[in-house]
């Protein structure tokens, strides 16, 4: 058998080829073994809110999670924390700016420290009904308010609405003078504090999660809220009188941090926005149904007396509370207040019905 002799250069080239093959095999094996560990982790959205799951807000959040799971499988995961499990509305915005949560839906009343203009939603007797509120929110003025938080590191993504507010108390409230001397739990809003000041009542800014305890401990004499919230938190079991004042609105702003939002890729951001838009529409459609159901249940319980105001009595409340408009006109802006008030006249109110968010 004849031996083949290779030159030094030929042997070097053969060795280089062999080493290349060995390197490729090693890379293949390493990728096969380590591939799953290096898979890109999904984006996690921690969504914190204070409501029960069996409310329009809770259902909206569940719908949003469902839609994201369907459309962004493996890319985005939504984790829900209801009933103030993670944060209440008084602390969630700070947590969001720190990156501890990515989405929340506080009441618009919580944003006074972030935007003076957004206080327009707390003005008493500004909106006649929920339909007027929604007309204003979908108008250019309403959509612009979503961006009024940007300088503070937050961005509004859309409005979710409950219904008109009513009063409950330990005594019958028929005329404004009946509220004098009483203590009312309110959200942390300067406008709402001023509203009770003109009634010669005291207001205490406390989280929604503490309402039941405050009432049971007699720390407050009354509160303002919607039928849905009064039912879901069993407030009607603690308050012997409910006055159907319909003096204000409860609206929520679904919000995120600008840092989180801008860090998303355009396709992911668009999918999240669309899912949220549909989820908010779903939640808003439930409002009337839930509000009616809650009122029926409270009425059937016979645990509280429901007081319906006459037109003259309601006008007294309206004339007394409307003085707050002038007090906050400088902060909110007269034109914005007028634009919101015009939403009560649908035939004279121009709006863009295509979106309820950015």
Q: Would you mind describing this structure in some detail?
A:
Helix 6 links the parallel strand 6 (183-186) and strand 7 (202-205). The protein is 43% helix and 16% strand. It has helices spanning 8-34, 56-71, 92-97, 130-137, 140-145, 190-197, 211-216, 227-232, 258-263, 266-301, 311-321, 323-327, 329-332, 334-342, and strands at residues 43-48, 76-81, 103-104, 154-164, 166-169, 183-186, 202-205, 222-225, 241-244, 249-257, 305-308. It is globular and about 60 Å long. Strands 7-6-8-5-9-11 form a six-stranded mixed sheet. It has a three-stranded parallel sheet with strand order 2-1-3. The protein has 358 residues and is an alpha/beta fold. Helix 2 packs antiparallel against helix 10. The chain has one domain (43-348): D-Maltodextrin-Binding Protein, domain 2 (3-Layer(aba) Sandwich). The model is unreliable at 18-38 and 351-356 (pLDDT under 50). The protein is built from 14 helices and eleven strands.
In total, how many beta strands?
11
Tell me which oligomeric state these chains represent. single chain
Uncertain ranges = 18-38, 351-356
Widest sheet: strand order?
A: 7-6-8-5-9-11
Distance between the amino and carboxyl termini: 83 Å
Q: What is the name of the CATH architecture?
A: 3-Layer(aba) Sandwich
Structural class label: alpha/beta
Order of helices and strands: HEHEHEHHEEEHEHEHEEHHEHHHH
Q: So what's the overall shape? A: globular
How much is the radius of gyration in Å? 28 Å
Q: What's the number of structural domains?
A: 1
The averaged pLDDT comes out at 89
CATH superfamily, called what? Bacterial extracellular solute-binding protein, family 7
Helix-residue proportion: 40-55%
The name CATH uses for the topology is D-Maltodextrin-Binding Protein, domain 2
Question: Which class in CATH terms?
Answer: Alpha Beta
Largest sheet: 6 strands, mixed
Q: Beta fraction of the residues?
A: 15-25%
Figure out the total of helices. Answer: 14
């Amino acid at each position: 058998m004849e031996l083949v002799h290779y030159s030094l250069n030929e042997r070097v080239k053969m060795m280089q080829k062999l080493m290349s093959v060995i390197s490729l095999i090693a890379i293949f094996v390493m990728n096969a073994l380590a591939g799953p560990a290096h898979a890109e982790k999904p984006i996690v959205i921690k969504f914190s809110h204070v409501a029960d799951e069996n409310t329009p807000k809770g259902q909206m959040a569940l719908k949003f999670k469902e839609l994201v799971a369907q459309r962004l499988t493996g890319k985005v995961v939504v984790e829900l924390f209801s009933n103030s499990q993670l944060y209440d509305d008084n602390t969630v915005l700070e947590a969001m700016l720190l990156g501890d949560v990515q989405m929340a839906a506080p009441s618009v009343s919580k944003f006074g420290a972030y935007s003076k203009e957004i206080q327009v939603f707390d003005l008493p007797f500004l909106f006649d009904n929920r339909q007027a509120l929604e007309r204003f929110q979908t108008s250019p003025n309403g959509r612009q308010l979503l961006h009024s938080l940007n300088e503070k590191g937050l961005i509004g993504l859309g409005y979710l609405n409950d219904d008109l507010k009513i009063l409950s108390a330990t005594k019958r409230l028929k005329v404004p003078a009946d509220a004098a001397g009483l203590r009312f739990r309110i959200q942390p809003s300067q406008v709402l504090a001023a509203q009770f000041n003109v009634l010669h009542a005291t207001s205490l800014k406390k989280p929604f999660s503490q309402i039941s305890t405050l009432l049971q401990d007699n720390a407050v004499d009354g509160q303002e809220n919607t039928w849905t919230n009064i039912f879901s938190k069993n407030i009607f079991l603690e308050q012997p009188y409910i006055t159907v004042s319909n003096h204000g609105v409860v609206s929520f702003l679904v919000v995120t941090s600008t840092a989180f939002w801008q860090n998303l890729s355009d396709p992911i951001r668009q999918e999240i926005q669309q899912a949220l838009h549909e989820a908010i529409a779903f939640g808003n459609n439930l409002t009337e149904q839930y509000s009616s159901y809650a009122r029926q249940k409270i009425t059937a319980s016979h645990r509280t007396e429901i007081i319906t105001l006459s037109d003259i009595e309601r006008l007294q409340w309206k004339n007394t509370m409307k003085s707050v408009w002038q007090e906050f006109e400088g902060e909110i802006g007269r034109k914005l207040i007028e634009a919101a008030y015009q939403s009560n006249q649908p035939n004279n109110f121009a709006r863009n019905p295509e979106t309820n968010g950015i």
